[in-house]
Amino acid sequence: MHLFKNKKIVISGGPGSGKTTLVNLLRIKGYECIDEFSRTLIKRAQKKGDNNFFKSQPLDFSKEVWNGRKEQYKNSKSSSNKTQKPYVFFDRGLHDVLAYMDYLGVSYDSCKFDPSGFTYDFAMLLPPRKSIYIKDNERKEGFQEAQKIYFYIKKTYQKYNIPIVEVPFQSPEVRISTLLEYLYHAEKA
Asked: Has domain 7-188 been given CATH number 3.30.460.10?
């Protein structure tokens, strides 16, 4: 019996730190995984001619990401019963929205962006690594920006008392093993 049955684990970190790669590997291993929501919005905005929706309309972008991630969180309760694995992994969480707005200095209503009802059992944070960092159509930030964003993400999860585990840079398979081993030992503690 798993003590962490259906526990919510967010995989987060600065842009380009390998989150999506790990989520895809976890999915291959049979874990329930929730994809990053913002890429859908970014691609949709680009089709409409807005090349950087995140920076051109940060509050509107954040509202849409917030609402999408809330739905993903709520839907994960029913989808987590589809697998015998004890965890549901999220490619970024609700708290990331706050971190990004704080990073940009965007004013927002903390009542409308209140993550207190949406907690995660752990935030597995991936520090940025210059050797793997690549800009792409959805990732517009430079490496120095990625480092700053990571600082805000870590600070936000700490503020809301989500236990943080920093997963060191290694090959994706070793990172997955490290992550799962940590969760296994935390379960036994």
From this structure: no
Write out residues in the chain with pLDDT < 50, as ranges: 1-4, 80
- Delimit the domains of the chain by residue range: 7-188
Q: CA torsion, points 154, 158, 162, 166, in degrees to nearest 10?
A: 40
| Separation of alpha carbons 176 and 89, rounded Å | 12
Please spell the DSSP secondary structure of 124-163, one letter per residue.
EEE---GGG----SS----HHHHHHHHHHHHHHHHHTT--
Q: Are 178 and 122 in contact (CB under 8 A)?
A: no
**Token pair of 151 as six digits:** 């600082």
Q: Which residues lie below 8 Å from residue 181, measured CB to CB, with a gap of 6+?
A: none
Strand, helix or coil for residue 166: strand
